[in-house]
Design brief:
single chain, 334 residues, alpha+beta, Beta-Lactamase, Alpha-Beta Plaits, 6-stranded antiparallel β-sheet, 5-stranded mixed β-sheet, 11 helices, GGDEF_dom
Length: 334
Amino acid sequence: MNMAGPPVGQGRVIGLSGSALDRLMPMHLWIGASGLVVRAGPTLARMAGDGLCGQPLERVIALRHPARAATLDLMLRLQGTPLKLNLTAAPDMPLKGMVVALPAGSGAFLNLSPGLSLVEAVNRFDLTLQDFAATDLAVELLWLVEAKSAVTTELKRLANRLNGARASAEARAATDTLTNVANRRGLEAMLTRQAASGRPFAVMQVDLDHFKAINDTHGHAAGDALLQEAAAILRGQCRRRDGVGRIGGDEFVLVFDDLVDPRVLHRIGQRLIERLEQPIEVNGQTCRISASIGVALSTGPAPTDPVRLLHEADRALYESKRAGRGRVTIAAPG
């Protein structure tokens, strides 16, 4: 579209096509002598919607500074003054503008820019670099925003990777490599968290009976396989919120969250013994073991010392051994 009555430059008339005008000022408004919008830049039309042409200027924009009706007469008096305004179609998005009068009283040109609301405008209206003039500072700012976004994304990815590696290393440091249950360090952390929670809990210490004989007869490889099988049996008797740890040799500890009923714990212990006493095939050999179990309870309102609780469970365990092995003993409170 050829523009009749183009703006004046260097004392002579410059003819501009509509497409050239759109490239130079994608957010312009051409206001005719009657005060109606003659043409709108493509970016502005995208933000304000179709149907701008033929609309009175005061219905398209609202001046915020100076706060007056946006008539053509007022705009001509504000020529060259930085304006603060917004589109009536997007009243919550502030814009900047500058108006220039056209020759011979033929109207005015109003060029707009998102200014500080650039990022919001880009996100809200899905704008791209093609929606701004190549010389517009907005292009540089968009590059900076994109660069910052890329760097931020990469930093987040790296942080997640490092956090994952750290969490993995901490988990490995607290895990028994043979049985894949908690080691002594992991068990101590588990008991500390449990005691700090204020919830009642029980500690069950399990010692495998006759394990040394199996280890001496069939070798350490068979003993390791037997320990792995025993750990799997113990895990199978726990709930998701309970924990299992190996504290050395053939001794394991189970932590039962919010479970302190002696009868229930005795049944669990008996079930564990019955399961462990079933023949276990290890490297083609049939092995038979049993278990002695001691249980200590944390039921008081005050946090229980995990070390003392383990000591009570250990004493109850040896009561089971002295009574003939293959049984469960519940430690008396205190």
